[in-house]
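Here is an idea for our session: we take a single protein and study its fold together. To get us started, please write out a protein record for me. Start from the sequence, derive the backbone structure tokens from it, and show both lines together. Go ahead whenever you are ready, and we will take it from there:
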Amino acid sequence: MSGKPITKQQVNLYMSYRKDHKQTIAAAQAGISERTARRIESGKHSTIKQARTYRTRKDPFNGAFEEHLVSLLKSDPEIQPITLLEHLDSIAPGKFGRNHLRTLQRRVKKWLATEGPEQDVIFRQTYMPGFMGISDYTWMNKLNITLTGEVFEHKLFHYKLVFSGWTYVQVVFGGESFESLSTGLQNAFWRSGGVPQTHRTDSLSAAFNNHYEQETLTERYQKLCKHYNVIATRNNKGIAHENGAIEVAHSHLKQKVDQQLRLRGSRDFATINEYQSFLDVIVAKINRQCKTRFDEERKHLNELPKRRTNDFSEQYVKVTSSSTISVKRVTYTVPSRLIGHRLLVHIYDTRLDLFLGHEITDSIPRVYAQGHLRSRAVDYKHVIHSLAKKPNAFKYSQLREDLIPEGDFSLLWQQLTQEYISDKDCHYMVELLLLAHNYNCEQALGRYVLKNHEQGKRISIEMCRKMFGPSSVVIPNIVSQQHQISDYDMLLGGLHG
């Protein structure tokens, strides 16, 4: 034990044993020498480790670090040790190898700590209840969520009250548009029951005119904030940590969603509404965990206005002779009765409302164009009666493939036209679509016809009418006898006595 350094714990152990035992026994019990024991009792022993002033092994760089690398680090502190090692190898080939990398990493780390530039300091913020709500968008594609088997690429609008952590989440169908921002933010305000003093987001083009040097709100976002009496703020461009509270929340939310998907055993959903309900359950659990702080924050939120404000944009369109309109690079079919009319379209995040004058005439799901490409949203129900009058037009129609509903009808059409597209097959498909619309049996009819076709049977249109058309109901002839007025007098007399 001689020459072996002892620890503070050994000293304490020795002193404990020394209370009841001789020095020799106490030293043996503590695992130290009698000489060390005497030094402890005389106050000459110290457990403080002396700083090493000698090198345990020869410096492999032998001044090369100071000569060749320090100047590089001063000019660019972000340069990596592996790059510096490769630089040394080019200067002295074969002298420095991968076995020196770990040593060089320690040297660089120490140099940066003692002589490197100052680093940015993150100042943790303290917010009062009701002061700030923050929002952002986050991609969910890495979770591999599908709708009826099809990949569902989408974002979430994510809102959070900074003080309490209360959260609201909403599926976003398109991009970071004003419509999605307005809808999500208003839903969050009304769901939480109040409005914070400030709302922070990043530099959304839907909210800020980013081509100006000074901070300028877009006209629509300014009106939105004024309606709810909330002050709009944003984090500085390129400074991600300024919106760190929501960025961290993004990560935690995705982890929770992923874990719940694993418990669910499937990442496929039948509809977007089903998926949104799934998210709502997760968010409800998050909000239960912060209920105490939210109850406190709720008292400090500003009151809601009497009503919501517009969460849509407007566009005037004229219905073409093909019964179509064009909105944001997407061609939509509309009911043919609107051909030639000028419509006002209210463009929401999820739908288009069509107005003729002051009256809404129809509401159709919104579709988003991908990139700079145009897209189509075709509903055969809008034009099927016209198409039934001239079925030959179906064969060469620009909208032919879009007119056929996805699923069974699409598979049937592919099987019918494997070799070529005949007039007979076109007429057959048009008649089937007409029946599907008139009898409101698209899904059942498509399944029935496709199943039989796969078995080598071509079901006639007449058979389809009999199967899915309204059945003839025999109305019975009910004979009723009219009572005499005197009968009522007898009833009244009986009541009175």
Remarks:
- The radius of gyration is 39 Å.
- The chain has a mean pLDDT of 86.
